[in-house]
């Protein structure tokens, strides 16, 4: 079971949204997907149309306590993300073995960058969600410095909440596009349907099946598929959408 | 999604639509100081912009390749001293990127031949000179109006 790590240099970029829809997209491709949210205050359930009142079970909770949405197993791990037991446990549970039949999608809070660095070494892909705004772009050098060239080999980028009607947003996106090249595997357009769906406690696919953001998120799921069976240190999606 | 937008999409038989293309040519980008600052940061060099199928570092993206034919580095910039079109864009992508700003800011003439006063329509060059001379121009791009 390969692991896809979703982690961004800055909070508020939509990493949880991307992780949730990545899981949905991979599940639609027939994968057995587990989503592991590591944020103490997470909103993962909302993206699946669930109320925040529903408590997700721990990663180690028995199967009869599982919360399944569309076949996707939702779990949390709120102990320290730097817990030394986490990686051995993931390995014992079979989450670190390549193959797209079973996939673990990890939603890591932006502040847990040390834990992210540890996990990225064992992940088949690191999906980094950015916005095209200057406060996010300004953190890229720090992130690159911390991650290093080896860690960046597994990194792909997504621009989220892109408003192409705004000049600065377009220019920021163009900057990322030129910087990341083929490692930019897609963009997700700013879409009011995303918060509206959460407010309606409905998954986006039900609330707004014509949503532009939903369409874009599905394309990203397709672009990440080649990483799942890759055993190489570096991967890239040869047919990735470059709509950004 | 607003119900009127959804109804419109239903009538058009589309799942989404773009009512206008806002794509900018990369060479038309503003010289936002933060982007210039980022381009000068050596840590950004750590990112290989994509090595599909092990083609080696520096494989340029289709977008970058599309942009290359019209790009000419300005003499004295990070991309080199030649005024001829770039021939090795993949080896120094960020430097090439920077050179595009330079290209957008000033005409591609040899340094010794460059006239002191730039063309009056060269707004980016003006902003750049103001930025270099005192920093007072930082933030000015945002004052040029949206879109």
Which structural category fits the helices and strands of chain A?
A: alpha/beta
**Averaging pLDDT over every residue of chain B, what do you get?**
54
Order of helices and strands of chain A: EHEHEEHEHEHHEHEHHH
The total domain count of chain A is 1
Q: In this structure, how is the largest beta sheet of chain A organized?
A: 8 strands, mixed
Helical residue percent band of chain B: 25-40%
Describe this structure in words.
The complex is a heterodimer of chains A (244) and B (147). Chain A contains ten helices and eight strands. Chain A is α/β, with parallel strands linked by helices and 244 residues long. Chain A has a single domain (3-102, 121-228), classed as 3-Layer(aba) Sandwich (Rossmann fold), CATH 3.40.50.300. In chain A, strands 3-4-2-5-1-6-7-8 form an eight-stranded mixed β-sheet, sandwiched between helices. In chain A, β3 (67-69) and β4 (72-76) form a beta hairpin. The longest helix of chain A is centred in the C-terminal third of the chain and has 17 residues, at 212-228. In chain A, 54% of the residues are buried. Mean pLDDT of chain A is 88; it is low at 237-244. Chain B is mainly alpha-helical and 147 residues long. Chain B has one domain. The longest helix of chain B has 13 residues, at 93-105. Mean pLDDT of chain B is 54; it is low at 51-92, 100-115, 117-123, 134-140 and 142-147. Classes of the chains: A alpha/beta (244), B mainly alpha (147). The interface between A and B is large, with 47 and 44 residues.
């Amino acid at each position: 079971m390969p692991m896809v790590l979703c982690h961004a240099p800055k909070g508020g970029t939509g990493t949880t949204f991307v992780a949730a829809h990545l899981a949905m997209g991979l599940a639609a491709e027939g994968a057995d997907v587990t989503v592991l949210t590591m944020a103490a205050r997470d909103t993962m359930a909302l993206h699946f149309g669930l109320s925040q009142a529903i408590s997700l079970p721990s990663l180690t909770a028995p199967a009869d306590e599982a919360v399944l949405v569309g076949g996707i197993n939702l779990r949390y791990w709120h102990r320290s993300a730097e817990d030394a037991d986490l990686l051995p446990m993931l390995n014992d549970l079979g989450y670190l073995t390549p193959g797209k039949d079973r996939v673990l999608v990890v939603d890591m809070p932006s502040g847990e960058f040390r834990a992210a660095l540890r996990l990225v070494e064992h992940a088949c892909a690191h999906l980094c969600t950015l916005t095209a705004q200057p406060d996010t772009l300004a953190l890229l050098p720090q992130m690159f410095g911390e991650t290093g060239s080896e860690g960046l080999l597994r990194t792909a980028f997504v621009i989220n909440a892109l408003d192409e009607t705004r000049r600065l947003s377009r220019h920021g996106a163009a900057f990322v596009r030129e910087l990341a090249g083929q490692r930019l595997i897609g963009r997700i357009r700013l879409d009011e349907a995303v918060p509206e769906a959460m407010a309606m406690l409905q998954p986006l696919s039900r609330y707004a099946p014509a949503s532009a953001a939903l369409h874009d998120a599905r394309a990203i799921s397709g672009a990440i598929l080649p990483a799942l069976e890759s055993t190489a240190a570096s991967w890239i999606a040869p047919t990735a959408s470059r709509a950004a | 999604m607003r119900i009127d937008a959804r109804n419109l999409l239903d009538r058009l038989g589309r799942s989404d639509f773009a009512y206008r293309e806002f794509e900018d040519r990369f060479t038309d980008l503003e010289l936002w100081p933060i982007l210039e600052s980022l381009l000068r940061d050596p840590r950004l060099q750590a990112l290989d912009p994509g090595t599909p199928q092990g083609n080696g570092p520096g494989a340029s993206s289709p977008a970058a390749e599309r942009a290359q034919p019209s790009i000419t580095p300005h003499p004295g910039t990070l991309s080199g001293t030649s005024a001829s079109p770039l021939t090795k864009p993949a080896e120094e992508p960020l430097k090439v990127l920077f050179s595009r700003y330079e290209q957008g800011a000033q005409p591609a003439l040899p340094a010794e031949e460059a006239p002191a006063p730039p063309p009056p329509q060269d707004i980016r060059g003006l902003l750049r000179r103001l930025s270099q001379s005192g920093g007072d121009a930082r933030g000015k791009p945002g004052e040029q109006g949206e879109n």
